[in-house]
Batch of 3 targets.
Target 1
Amino acid sequence: MLTLAEASKLIQNPLQKGVVEIFARTSPVLQYLPFMTIAGNAYSWNMENTLPGIAFRGYNASYTEDTGVVQQSTEALKIFGGLVKLDRAQVKTQGNVNNIRAIHTGLAAKAAALHFTSCFFKGDNDADSNEFDGLENRLTGAQVINQGSTSGGDELTLAQLDLLLDSVYGGPDVLFMNKHMRRKVNSLMRAAGQAQETVSGVFGQQIPAYAGVPIGIIEEGRDGNEILAYDEPDSAGASASCTSIYAVKFGAQEYVSGLQASGGLEVEDQGAVETFLVTLIEWICSIAIFHPKAAARLQAIKLAGYDHQTTTTTTA
């Protein structure tokens, strides 16, 4: 049960090792998400719903019988990946085959990591049965918090951000937000007289934090569009001009975890196929939430003026 960053240290195949490292470095989600290797094409488990009643009793009295409630959940694995096809003519005209293939394989790995990240938040199995549901479709009830009730959304406040943190059992491992929201958090902290926080990331780099919780900045997807964009409805379900912040606690068989088939993230050199050199990147995987309070979402946050400043140049 390792994250991709940890798993890459154990991989002997240089091609596979390089792709796994790119996945981990490209996606803030994949830096933290642990993966369980499972047998078969789906995984079933019982998730705690309601605890049984426990009480004190007097002498010669009996306990009241009560039974806890569990919810059976099943998560199917999805087949994810792509083919990297390099025209053999490029090798003859552009130089070393290993260098050229490494460049194109790296591009494909980055695209795949970004697509996985997008599905982690926005995946919709109803719209596309080949992909898994993301957090937006999985989180319900008390795990979805409105920033406010104003039409068109409300500006982020530290009070609601604190509520988001408290909505995750034991506190989250990471806060995920877009870069505009990160700037807003910094602005609110300065206004409250708090010093900007940083913590060490998975690869030793300094990353921003709030209340000691690392902030994972979710930027553009493989199509160049923001993943956590301002295209979500407000608290009334109207005016698609809001975004969300997610708080997530990770843990295999405990909180939020990845699932994968035996072999993990596979990278296979398929050699020459007709006029192409082909590399297969494939991952049979999904995600699972093992605790009802393993993640939470703060939604209906509008784009504040500070978060989206633009610079204009005026000529006389």
Note: The domain at 4-49+71-305 is CATH 3.90.1690 (phage-related protein like fold).
Target 2
Amino acid sequence: MKHQENKAPQISKEELNVRGRYVQVDSVRLDNKAIVAWGKLLTTAWILEDLYTDVDDPELLIKGMKEAGLTADIFTFFERFPEDNPKFDYYMEWEAYSILPVTTYDDWYEKQIRKTTRHSVRAAAKKGVVTRMAEFNDDLVKGIMDIYDETPTRQGKPFWHYKKGFEVLKEDLSRDLDRSEFIGAYYNDELIGFIKMLYADKVADPVLCISKMKHYDKRPNNALFAQAVKIAEERNIPYLHYGMWRRGSHAKFLAANGFKKVLCPRYFCPLTVKGKIALKMRLHKDLNRVLQGNIKGKVVEIRESINKLTSRK
């Protein structure tokens, strides 16, 4: 019987959502984790669903990436909540996430949310808003498309999903249907808001939550979050997660609905000389963050510095 050698992991392609548009990026599967690599000035590798994935041996993943030929300057991974005690020796920064601990709906309603939020939840019901699970079908997609196409801007920014078209929107919404479901907010049988809930381990993630602006007075988003908490209780899910903690009206809304700012460790491991330089220059984060604070003029200078230093090696 011939000895079967272990095959090196192979590079494949994965679709990545970048600002509402899907792009093809290099990917490799290691230890049942999809690791993707993407970036222009710097190429960063990360676990595709690191918010739902525990990392026990990052060196094993780094070794596998190199064996597969996945090219990246920096590998980053996340230590999941409720973990707040860094256990690895890599360069680390704290990241703030929006987390709602869930025990019971009554506890959330009576103790975790503000008086104004309780009023909004009651007001939604009094004004006729009904929340219920929504089957994914063409009618739901048309209802969501009607919500998306209400306005080309939201919160003062261009809205990514505006006028996408039925087929494109249906394909987007159908992703991860095996572990997600939709909650709809209805007024006179009209879909005026919805949540797409993604389930992973001990976390439920409302990856999409949006409603019609013309029905703002009926507080559909508050009604939707209340329904999400009920579902979490029914399924013994201890946490709702709603993305990174952001300042301004977004943070105020989440805090009013019981979400807390939770700090968790994120690690950055340089894989190339460019990656090491980028970490020293704090250029390892999203360029949108780097461009804040009147430093646009320094980006070309930084790029040239990196090129000069790497060319000497």
Note: The radius of gyration is 22 Å.
Target 3
Amino acid sequence: MKSLPKRLNFQKRTPDFNHETVPAGILGQHKTASDTWGKIVVTEGSLTYRILEPNVEEHIISTENYGVIAPQLTHQVEMHESAKFHIEFYKDAV
């Protein structure tokens, strides 16, 4: 799993999501803007994070680790039972 570049500044974070509150768009294939990085932070349980390009990668994200979303790469999340998580967004320091 990649790590977030050190040059990034925190911008915002989503609310905490669970099976009932996760937006459908997060579960389907999607990508971030060209200047936006994401950090998937699991606070309970685990989920599967799939990076779909340029090569398919699959990672299990739990409270022990986090997922890194690189700009403009198609990805998706699959929630496991009892998972809770949020996403933090970062941009290059100006």
Note: The helical segments are 24-27.
